[in-house]
Amino acid sequence: MDGVAYRGVFVRQWDPGTLSDMMTFSALSDTGTAVWGSHAAR
Fold it and tell me: Which of 3, 10, 11, 24 makes an SS bond possible with 38, Cβ 3.0 to 4.6 Å?
């Protein structure tokens, strides 16, 4: 993002609120900036 490299993982995770799997990710830059997110299938 914006020319910054991040290293991280994607994981399929159970969401008890929607009773379905969702894809999640978390990553960290060399300077310690963390990013994370999730996406639920519709």
Answer: 24
Q: Which residues contact 19 (CB under 8 A, 6 or more apart)?
A: none
The predicted pLDDT at position 25 comes to 96
- Residue-wise pLDDT for 1-42, tens only, equals 788 999 999 999 999 988 999 999 999 999 999 999 998 776
Q: Fill in the amino acid letter for 17.
A: G
Q: Are the C-beta atoms of residues 33 and 11 closer than 8 Å to each other? A: no
Residue 18 and residue 40: Cα distance in Å, rounded?
9
Instruction: Give me the residues paired with residue 21 across strands.
Output: 14
